[in-house]
Fold this sequence. Notes:
By secondary structure, this protein is an alpha/beta fold.
Amino acid sequence: MTNIKNIAVFTSIRSEYGLLSPLIRAIDMDENFTLRLLAGGAHLRKEYGETIDQIISDGYKITEKFDFLDTDSSNDFSSRSLGRLQEQIGKYLYFNRPDLLFILGDRYELLPVASSALLYNIPVAHISGGETTEGAIDNQVRHALTKMSHLHFPATETYRQNIIKMGEEPWRICNSGEPGLDEIVSMDFISKEDLFADLGLSVGKTIICCTFHPQTIDNKINAAFIKELL
């Protein structure tokens, strides 16, 4: 009889893996846990940089790969990809049944992952729930994942309260902060001079860095939004 728990972590894209890295490392180093790293989607595609190589170079063994992403130009590529993942992840979870499954954020490919775990009574831990992204389908996806999960790790007290308002029991919710921030303390930062030289920017000028996230509900770039931003 062993008390070692099998902890699965699902990742499908570089940005998500970067945020999950501290958690993956902690699970992998803990003798009470066996890491089951589930990777697929954009990680496996050359056009997205084949970032599965980065995971392997970080020293992790991939437990299972899920090549579900359909990248053709057809309008229904998303639903076909999700259908493929539903079958793949459902089969894996049915036969392997980890003790806990970690997912992070609001990416739509997490819907078949969480729903399959729900069907097979596999506990789901959701990181970064309770947040709001207006104008994006991320909102609905994130909240759906929250309701399909059993343990919640929001980034702030405000987000913890939002999850409570959704009807989740407070004892299941831990205000843990963002795991991706843990990487900052161990990073080797390049100098401002080297960064600006690499980007072709002048150190003597004032620089503003901003990002713009288009509305994914309308699936259009609204010119008025860009004008307001500028």
